[in-house]
Design a protein that fits this description.
The longest helix has about 30 residues. The chain has six helices and no strands. The protein is mostly helical. The radius of gyration is 28 Å and the shape is elongated. Helix 1 packs across helix 2, helix 3 packs across helix 4 and helix 5 crosses helix 6.
Protein backbone atom coordinates (compact mmCIF):
# COMPACT_ATOMS: atom_id res chain seq x y z
CA UNK A 1 0.00 0.00 0.00
CA UNK A 2 1.44 3.31 -1.03
CA UNK A 3 0.79 6.33 1.13
CA UNK A 4 -0.71 9.33 -0.65
CA UNK A 5 1.80 11.97 -1.61
CA UNK A 6 1.27 15.72 -1.43
CA UNK A 7 -0.02 15.91 -5.02
CA UNK A 8 -2.71 13.30 -4.25
CA UNK A 9 -3.79 15.22 -1.15
CA UNK A 10 -3.95 18.50 -3.09
CA UNK A 11 -6.08 16.77 -5.75
CA UNK A 12 -8.40 15.50 -2.99
CA UNK A 13 -8.75 19.03 -1.60
CA UNK A 14 -9.64 20.30 -5.07
CA UNK A 15 -12.17 17.48 -5.51
CA UNK A 16 -13.84 18.17 -2.14
CA UNK A 17 -13.97 21.95 -2.48
CA UNK A 18 -16.68 22.70 -5.01
CA UNK A 19 -16.67 26.45 -4.25
CA UNK A 20 -12.92 26.92 -4.54
CA UNK A 21 -12.82 27.54 -8.25
CA UNK A 22 -14.79 30.64 -9.07
CA UNK A 23 -17.24 30.62 -11.94
CA UNK A 24 -16.68 32.82 -14.92
CA UNK A 25 -13.08 31.82 -15.50
CA UNK A 26 -11.53 34.04 -12.83
CA UNK A 27 -7.87 33.30 -12.46
CA UNK A 28 -7.60 33.19 -8.66
CA UNK A 29 -9.39 30.37 -6.81
CA UNK A 30 -10.99 30.91 -3.40
CA UNK A 31 -7.87 30.22 -1.34
CA UNK A 32 -9.69 30.46 1.99
CA UNK A 33 -12.19 27.80 0.96
CA UNK A 34 -9.32 25.57 -0.18
CA UNK A 35 -7.53 26.18 3.13
CA UNK A 36 -10.62 25.17 5.11
CA UNK A 37 -10.98 21.91 3.15
CA UNK A 38 -7.22 21.22 3.40
CA UNK A 39 -7.42 21.70 7.18
CA UNK A 40 -10.34 19.29 7.40
CA UNK A 41 -8.50 16.68 5.31
CA UNK A 42 -5.33 17.12 7.38
CA UNK A 43 -7.39 16.54 10.54
CA UNK A 44 -8.78 13.31 9.10
CA UNK A 45 -5.31 12.09 8.17
CA UNK A 46 -3.95 13.07 11.61
CA UNK A 47 -6.82 11.27 13.38
CA UNK A 48 -6.09 8.14 11.37
CA UNK A 49 -2.38 8.38 12.22
CA UNK A 50 -3.19 8.89 15.92
CA UNK A 51 -5.47 5.84 15.89
CA UNK A 52 -2.68 3.79 14.30
CA UNK A 53 -0.16 4.74 17.00
CA UNK A 54 -2.74 4.32 19.78
CA UNK A 55 -3.55 0.82 18.57
CA UNK A 56 0.10 -0.22 18.70
CA UNK A 57 0.64 1.38 22.12
CA UNK A 58 -2.34 -0.61 23.38
CA UNK A 59 -0.85 -3.83 21.96
CA UNK A 60 2.53 -3.04 23.52
CA UNK A 61 0.91 -2.56 26.94
CA UNK A 62 -1.13 -5.77 26.59
CA UNK A 63 2.06 -7.68 25.83
CA UNK A 64 4.00 -6.35 28.80
CA UNK A 65 5.95 -3.38 27.47
CA UNK A 66 6.64 -0.72 30.09
CA UNK A 67 5.72 2.93 29.68
CA UNK A 68 9.47 3.68 29.67
CA UNK A 69 10.07 1.33 26.73
CA UNK A 70 7.07 2.71 24.81
CA UNK A 71 8.25 6.27 25.46
CA UNK A 72 11.73 5.41 24.19
CA UNK A 73 10.24 3.90 21.02
CA UNK A 74 8.18 7.06 20.44
CA UNK A 75 11.06 9.39 21.34
CA UNK A 76 9.32 10.92 24.36
CA UNK A 77 9.52 10.51 28.12
CA UNK A 78 7.65 7.92 30.14
CA UNK A 79 5.53 10.67 31.66
CA UNK A 80 4.60 12.09 28.25
CA UNK A 81 3.52 8.74 26.86
CA UNK A 82 1.51 7.96 30.01
CA UNK A 83 -0.29 11.28 29.86
CA UNK A 84 -1.21 10.75 26.24
CA UNK A 85 -2.12 7.06 26.23
CA UNK A 86 -2.85 5.86 29.77
CA UNK A 87 -6.54 6.74 29.83
CA UNK A 88 -8.68 4.34 27.87
CA UNK A 89 -9.78 5.84 24.57
CA UNK A 90 -12.54 3.43 23.82
CA UNK A 91 -15.95 4.89 24.47
CA UNK A 92 -18.69 2.56 25.59
CA UNK A 93 -22.17 3.98 25.40
CA UNK A 94 -24.97 2.82 27.71
CA UNK A 95 -26.74 1.36 24.67
CA UNK A 96 -24.02 -1.30 24.35
CA UNK A 97 -24.44 -2.42 27.98
CA UNK A 98 -26.91 -4.85 29.49
CA UNK A 99 -29.36 -3.57 32.08
CA UNK A 100 -27.33 -5.18 34.88
CA UNK A 101 -24.13 -3.50 33.72
CA UNK A 102 -25.87 -0.11 33.41
CA UNK A 103 -27.26 -0.45 36.95
CA UNK A 104 -23.84 -1.50 38.24
CA UNK A 105 -22.26 1.55 36.60
CA UNK A 106 -24.80 3.77 38.36
CA UNK A 107 -23.61 2.32 41.70
CA UNK A 108 -19.96 2.69 40.64
CA UNK A 109 -20.39 6.39 39.83
CA UNK A 110 -22.37 6.91 43.03
CA UNK A 111 -19.57 5.37 45.09
CA UNK A 112 -16.99 7.68 43.48
CA UNK A 113 -19.17 10.74 44.10
CA UNK A 114 -19.97 9.75 47.69
CA UNK A 115 -16.27 9.36 48.45
CA UNK A 116 -15.54 12.69 46.76
CA UNK A 117 -13.16 11.11 44.24
CA UNK A 118 -12.59 12.61 40.82
CA UNK A 119 -11.81 9.19 39.32
CA UNK A 120 -13.33 5.73 39.21
CA UNK A 121 -10.98 3.18 40.71
CA UNK A 122 -11.10 -0.51 41.52
CA UNK A 123 -12.60 0.27 44.91
CA UNK A 124 -15.57 1.94 43.21
CA UNK A 125 -15.95 -0.94 40.75
CA UNK A 126 -15.93 -3.40 43.63
CA UNK A 127 -18.55 -1.34 45.45
CA UNK A 128 -20.72 -1.21 42.33
CA UNK A 129 -20.53 -4.95 41.79
CA UNK A 130 -21.21 -5.85 45.42
CA UNK A 131 -24.24 -3.57 45.78
CA UNK A 132 -25.99 -5.05 42.77
CA UNK A 133 -28.96 -7.24 43.84
CA UNK A 134 -29.52 -9.19 40.64
CA UNK A 135 -27.62 -11.97 38.92
CA UNK A 136 -24.08 -13.03 39.73
CA UNK A 137 -22.96 -9.68 41.16
CA UNK A 138 -25.68 -9.96 43.80
CA UNK A 139 -24.06 -13.10 45.18
CA UNK A 140 -20.99 -11.10 46.27
CA UNK A 141 -21.95 -9.50 49.57
CA UNK A 142 -19.49 -7.90 51.93
CA UNK A 143 -18.74 -10.07 54.96
CA UNK A 144 -20.45 -9.21 58.22
CA UNK A 145 -17.99 -8.05 60.81
CA UNK A 146 -17.66 -10.42 63.78
CA UNK A 147 -15.78 -7.98 65.97
CA UNK A 148 -17.51 -6.45 68.93
CA UNK A 149 -17.31 -2.75 69.37
CA UNK A 150 -15.19 -1.71 72.27
CA UNK A 151 -17.19 0.65 74.51
CA UNK A 152 -14.87 0.99 77.41
CA UNK A 153 -11.43 0.12 78.71
CA UNK A 154 -10.39 -3.50 78.41
CA UNK A 155 -10.81 -5.51 81.57
CA UNK A 156 -7.87 -7.57 82.70
CA UNK A 157 -8.61 -11.04 82.16
Amino acid sequence: MALPDLDCLIAEVDRRCDTAHRPGGQEQPDWLALLAVATQLAGEVQALADNLVEDYVEHCRMHGSSWTDIGAALGVTRQAVQQRFQAPHRHYSPETMTDDVRQTMVHVKLAAVQHRNNYIGTEHLLWGVTTQDTGAPGSFKPPVSRRRRCTGPAKPG
